[in-house]
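Researcher: Quick test of sequence recovery. Tokens follow.
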């Protein structure tokens, strides 16, 4: 029996990202059971540890690609606890990560535990903007600051405002922060440059 379980686990990991699925379920269910619901203007927290699978080639710190992957779990937790997930199912809306703004002060070292604090800092007609702070637990230092832009995609051209409408904390849209305005300008400049290459 033990051999069958081990074989099944190896096959699932070889052909599917089984750990991703398990971690997603754990993150969502632990949020539901242990933490409960929260409003859109609250900060949610998920925890992680830098393992060998997360490390760069020198095995001394977490890779940026793995850190961005960890944001998925933070985002799923936030969506579920705030009601965005349930609302998106009702409206048949999905979200797609459009881009990220990443500032890394210091990478998370191997075997260090960290937390990711997620906050909805702004939304416009097409997108939600989530701010993530990666903080190591032993020294409480912010290691990375990441903003992710989530495009709202629906069958009937629903907007981000219609997705959030009626959810606790959606009464007042947050003011667009200065660094977001600068980021928007830099994206416009990059887009114009790419359009001129044609």
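Model:
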């Amino acid at each position: 029996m033990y051999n069958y379980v081990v074989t099944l686990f190896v096959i699932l990991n070889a052909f599917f990202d089984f750990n991703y699925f398990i971690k997603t379920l754990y993150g969502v269910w632990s949020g539901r059971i242990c933490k409960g619901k929260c409003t859109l203007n609250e900060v949610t927290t998920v925890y992680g540890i830098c393992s060998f699978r997360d490390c760069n080639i020198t095995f001394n710190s977490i890779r940026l690609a793995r850190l961005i992957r960890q944001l998925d779990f933070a985002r799923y937790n936030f969506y579920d606890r705030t009601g965005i997930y349930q609302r998106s199912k009702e409206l048949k809306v999905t979200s797609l990560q459009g881009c990220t703004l990443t500032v890394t002060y210091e990478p998370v070292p191997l075997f260090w535990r960290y937390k990711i604090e997620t906050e909805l800092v702004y939304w416009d007609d097409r997108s939600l903007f989530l701010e993530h702070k990666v903080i190591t637990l032993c020294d409480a230092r912010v290691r990375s600051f990441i903003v992710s832009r989530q495009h709202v995609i629906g069958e009937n051209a629903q907007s981000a405002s219609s997705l959030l409408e009626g959810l606790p904390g959606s009464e007042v849209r947050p003011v667009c922060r200065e660094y977001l305005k600068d980021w928007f300008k830099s994206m416009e400049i990059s887009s114009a440059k790419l359009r001129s290459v044609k």
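Residues 2-187 form a domain with the Thiol Ester Dehydrase; Chain A fold (CATH 3.10.129.10).
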